[in-house]
């Protein structure tokens, strides 16, 4: 009885070792297959009402259109829209750390600054906030892309030029890609009023495909 038990034990041990040897190549193959899969990218949009679909239907904004374009192109990219109407660069700066920790994005589209101008905040404050936002993105391993904005002519030529120029300054200082002007091709139209809502600040839904094209021209090369 003892001999039979010993033989049975040795047989089971041998079978276990054999199965283990068979399983090892399978595990290695699984690891190689997983490593071969492309990394899934995630784009975080940190913006204000221009990105938060203010005054237009759900799914009509440029961020939603971006999701559909990526899907159509069969690109494995997730888009998280963290835009809030009325947000400033200060607000975005304070919200960003938690967003970076939660979503761990590969790219961050920074569309902020317009409300700073509307509130008459110092340009130096806006620039400092944008520099901090871009720096935080880089520190978290995300690629920041700055989306530039301009103000209407009634703000004055000097202020308008300085405001538009600060986005380029931040982009140059941080070696970050820049979308020169989100509303390019819309705001300077002869019939521009027909492309904006009654407040003359927020674009109508028909303007958002052009807004996406402006962003896409820079974003596509970063993906």
Automatic annotation (TrEMBL):
Q: What terms describe the molecular function in GO for this protein?
A: phosphatidylcholine lysophospholipase activity
Which InterPro entries does the protein's record reference? Ester_Hydrolysis_Enzymes (IPR051532), SGNH_hydro (IPR013830), SGNH_hydro_sf (IPR036514)
Write out the entry's keywords from A to Z.
Signal
Cross-referenced Pfam families, in alphabetical order? Lipase_GDSL_2
Record has Signal as a keyword: yes
User: What residue stretches are annotated with the SGNH hydrolase-type esterase domain?
Assistant: 45-208
The source's domain of life comes to: Bacteria
The residues forming the signal peptide are 1-28
Protein's name according to its UniProt entry? Acyl-CoA thioesterase-1
Task: List the source organism.
Answer: Roseateles toxinivorans
């Amino acid at each position: 009885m003892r001999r039979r038990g010993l033989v049975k034990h040795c047989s089971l041990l041998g079978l276990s070792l054999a199965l283990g040897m068979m399983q090892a190549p399978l595990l290695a193959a699984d690891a190689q297959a997983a490593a071969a899969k492309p990394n899934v990218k995630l784009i975080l949009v940190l913006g204000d009402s221009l990105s938060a679909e203010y005054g237009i239907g759900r799914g009509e904004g440029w961020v939603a259109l971006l999701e559909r374009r990526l899907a159509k192109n069969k690109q494995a990219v997730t888009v998280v829209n963290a835009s809030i109407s009325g947000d400033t660069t200060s607000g975005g700066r304070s919200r960003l750390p938690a967003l970076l920790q939660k979503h761990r994005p590969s790219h961050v589209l920074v569309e902020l600054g317009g409300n700073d101008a509307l509130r008459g905040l110092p340009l130096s404050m806006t620039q400092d906030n944008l520099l901090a936002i871009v720096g935080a993105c880089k520190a978290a391993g995300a690629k920041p892309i700055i989306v530039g904005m301009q103000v209407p002519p009634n703000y004055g030529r000097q202020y308008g030029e300085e405001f538009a120029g600060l986005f380029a300054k931040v982009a140059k200082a941080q070696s970050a890609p820049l979308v020169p002007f989100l509303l390019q091709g819309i705001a300077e139209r002869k019939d521009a009023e027909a492309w904006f809502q009654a407040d003359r600040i927020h674009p109508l839904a028909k303007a958002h495909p052009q807004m996406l094209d402006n962003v896409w021209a820079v974003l596509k090369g970063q993906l």
